Amino acid sequence: NGHVVVTVEGEGQLFQYTESNQVLIARGEGRTYYRCGKRPGEACVTARGDGLAPGTATINIQPAESTSLDS
User: Fold this and answer.
1) Among 31, 34, 29, which Cα is nearest to 59's?
2) pLDDT tens digits, 19-34
3) Whole-angstrom distance, CA of residue 71 vs CA of residue 44
4) Please, are residues 56 and 46 in contact by the beta-carbon 8 Å criterion?
């Protein structure tokens, strides 16, 4: 159990469950949500925690195709 700090660089926003912007880890698992922006490009999400090597994931953001829900 512990905490991991998750940050994002680029378009979009993270939603976390704590006011300190840390993800709570329980039984080796933690959760946060990412909502991408409207412009195409890349966003890098990085997680850092005490005693752990930082991990980064790159998300390729593409514009959504129009659907019947858009009308």
Assistant:
1) 34
2) 777 898 888 888 888 8
3) 32
4) yes
Return the structure tokens found at 38.
Answer: 């409207």
pTM metric for this prediction = 0.73
Structural tokens at position 43: 């966003």
How many residues in total does the chain contain? 71
Look-up: residue for tokens 């959504």?
A: 64
* Cβ–Cβ < 8 Å for 24, 18: yes
List strands edge to edge, sheet with 2-10.
Answer: 22-25, 2-10, 41-48, 55-61
> Which sign, positive or negative, has the C-alpha torsion 12, 16, 21, 27?
negative
CA angle 35, 48, 41 (to 5 degrees): 35
pLDDT tens track for 8-67: 898 888 888 777 778 988 888 888 888 887 888 999 999 998 888 999 999 998 877 766
